[in-house]
């Protein structure tokens, strides 16, 4: 039996490793490094809306990967949940997204070279 954090770590590792082999790896890494800070500064709903509206495919790819790691169908599904969640649910969701995003940040630093 694995903890939730272990499942997130394994899933994030596999997804980042796959993205490290693509041409958008550098931009993916940049957003992986910035996303936890963005969430803490702007809030979850605003940060997800920012990622969703960005023109760069790598940023959206990170959002999609993160949402799927957390069990959502995609970035739009996660964003909708963040927008409509009551306060306690929103706070829980923020903690979960930050927890998973930290794994993406760590693995992006380790697996994607500049």
Automatic annotation (TrEMBL):
It is found in: Cytoplasm. Keywords: Antiviral defense, Cytoplasm. Belongs to the CRISPR system Cmr5 family. It comes from Marinithermus hydrothermalis (strain DSM 14884 / JCM 11576 / T1). One of its GO terms (cellular component) is cytoplasm. This is CRISPR type III-B/RAMP module-associated protein Cmr5. Its main location: cytoplasm. It comes from the Bacteria. One of its GO terms (biological process) is defense response to virus. Gene3D superfamilies: AF1862-like domain (1.10.520.30). The keyword Nucleus does not apply.
């Amino acid at each position: 039996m694995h903890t939730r954090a272990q499942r997130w770590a394994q899933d994030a590792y596999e997804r980042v490793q796959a993205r490290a082999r693509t041409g958008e790896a550098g931009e993916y890494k940049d957003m992986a490094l910035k996303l936890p800070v963005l969430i803490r500064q702007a809030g979850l709903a605003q940060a997800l809306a920012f990622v969703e509206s960005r023109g760069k495919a790598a940023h959206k790819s990170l959002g999609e990967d993160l949402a799927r790691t957390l069990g959502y169908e995609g970035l739009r599904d996660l964003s909708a949940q963040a927008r409509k969640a009551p306060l306690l649910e929103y706070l829980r969701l923020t903690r979960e997204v930050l927890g998973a995003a930290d794994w993406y940040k760590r693995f992006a630093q380790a697996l994607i070279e500049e």
